[in-house]
């Protein structure tokens, strides 16, 4: 909303009218240095293997690799990356009064068709000289990636853009499942779902199995695309992700889909052999495969 080139209305006056602090207008974020980016890359890779590592365990891990780092530094980097250890924790904070937490609706639910349940999550994407955040929306039954967006901040805007894009291209689901991140609990996001009478489901705190399929997507995407290509710019990353997600949707067969690709399963809606599985059953079987 601030226009620095408006000669007749100086920035001081514009800030006064908009009730903004001038320091926020002039501030330019300082990029992470090379050492921190290298540590963040190591933290991200290890977190995929051990998502239950908090800042203490991650600090010990980095020290074993020969990096003299303190826990405060590791905690700060993990916060920038949006990483939180997955384990049951006591309730140490009161949720924002405007951010309602919704119950988890998928337990014991038979999911047997496309557009019955969609899910979404955000992950950190390292690059050669920086990092971005990626949000994706996935159809739970077919594993198809319906929409995705990149952003340099973890605000709600790029999540809303991905959601609107998925609606435009694929209609609406019956249930939408996310974690309890502020990007998904903000009324600006949940209001869009409620307007379309979509039931909102949210994972329990520390329950990574509640959204296991998109967690497995992040693992595959990072090991098969991001870590193999040291993308230097956001444009290069966007091209690389487009290519990988197109391959994932259209050419990569899934055992859970009887050897079909997500695109084939989504558009033809075949019924997999055998009875439908509940989310808990599917999550447990996926966890076994991941451990193997």
UniProtKB/TrEMBL annotation:
PROSITE patterns assigned: INTEGRASE
Region feature (Disordered): 262-292
InterPro entries hit by this protein: HTH-like_dom, Integrase_cat-core, RNaseH-like_sf, RNaseH_sf, Transpos_IS3, Transposase_IS3/IS150/IS904
Location of the Integrase catalytic domain: 110-270
Ranges of compositional bias, category Polar residues: 281-292
Pfam families in alphabetical order: HTH_21, rve
Top-rank taxon: Bacteria
Signal peptide residue numbers: none
NCBIfam families: transpos_IS3 (NF033516)
Designated name of the protein: Transposase
Organism the protein comes from: Gluconobacter japonicus
Lineage, highest ranks first: Bacteria, Pseudomonadati, Pseudomonadota, Alphaproteobacteria, Acetobacterales
